[in-house]
TrEMBL record:
<feature type="region of interest" description="Disordered">
    <location>
        <begin position="61"/>
        <end position="83"/>
    </location>
</feature>
<protein>
    <recommendedName>
        <fullName>Transposase</fullName>
    </recommendedName>
</protein>
């Protein structure tokens, strides 16, 4: 890519990547001090994934603390089920 840009005398103004930790060092070696930004789509995707994981974990925790009731409608003599 660097060769193709150089052959056409096109300046590289910046690079956008998905945020992998593998990119910064090779980019710096090949292109020098070029601005590097993270793709907003990938940032939002990772945030959403983390939030959904936290919500699922909390739902699981809440489900375990839910009281165990008998099935059906409580009878008028079943005081425990009314609470």
């Amino acid at each position: 890519m660097k060769t193709a840009l150089d052959d056409r005398n096109l300046p590289l103004k910046g690079i956008t990547t998905d945020g992998s930790p593998l990119y910064p060092e090779p980019i710096r070696k090949v292109f020098g001090d070029v601005p590097h930004q993270l793709c907003i789509f990938h940032i939002i995707k990772d945030l959403t994934k983390g939030i959904l994981k936290a919500v699922a974990k909390e739902r699981e925790r809440l489900a375990q603390t839910k009281p165990k009731l008998k099935r059906g409608r409580p009878s008028s003599t079943d005081k425990e089920a009314r609470r």
